Amino acid sequence: MIPASPVGRIVEKTASPVETFALYVALLGGVVLIGIAVLTLISVAGRALIGFGLAPLRGQFELVQAGTAFVVTAFMPWAQLKRAHASVAVFTDFLPARANAAIDFIGDALLFALAVLLAWRQFYGVLDKLAYGETSFLLRFPLWWAYGASMIGLLAWIVVGLWCSLNSGAILFSSRTDNKLYQPKR
């Protein structure tokens, strides 16, 4: 339970919607990842069975590139929310709870800043690809589609990164000593 500060109340009330949002974005990324795997399987099978009149899918690698860009950004919000990023607990386990809370806050704030930076630059990438009408080599689909799809995950990461920063900040600046993040009741 987060303390009864204004930030703590905001974190508590928004925990479940933020988690649901991150979950749905990650699930969408998972569906796209499965699609990429199936597409690759079909293409490889077609290449292996050329003697039987089949062929690899034309432009399959272009679709894999575009889909992978979305998948990576779609998983980032869920990874931050669930603290699934790599950490070195061997160095922090001996530290007091307040020091670990400070490390968590700094890490969340840095990930939030990274999400904002990447979304900012990605936005200009979308505008650039749109303005110049750049397309993929074989399939000729507009590249801004892939850049734009990645914006979904990046914007979700900004929302989750802000929530995580508020959550760890509320813990750091409270009188709590357990250093436990608020978790929705799922």
Automatic annotation (TrEMBL):
Keyword tRNA processing: no
Domain (Tripartite ATP-independent periplasmic transporters DctQ component): residue spans on this chain: 36-161
Protein keywords: Cell membrane, Membrane, Transmembrane, Transmembrane helix, Transport
GO CC, one annotated term: plasma membrane
Main location, first listed in the record: membrane
Regions crossing the membrane: 21-43, 63-81, 102-124, 144-166
Keyword check for Nucleus: no
Cited InterPro entries: DctQ
Intracellular or extracellular location(s): Cell membrane
Membrane-topology annotation of the record: Multi-pass membrane protein
Protein name: Tripartite ATP-independent periplasmic transporters DctQ component domain-containing protein
Organism of origin: hydrothermal vent metagenome
